[in-house]
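> call design_seq(struct)
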């Protein structure tokens, strides 16, 4: 099982998470983890 590199940072608008080489804005860090780990 390949471990996914979790990258991201909090912004004023939510949490910017790295997905497939580009940043996507999520409502929260938890939303990002759910999206990537689903």
């Amino acid at each position: 099982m390949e471990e996914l590199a979790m990258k991201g940072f909090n912004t004023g608008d939510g949490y910017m998470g790295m997905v497939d080489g580009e940043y996507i804005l999520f409502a929260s860090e938890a939303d990002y983890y759910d999206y990537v780990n689903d």
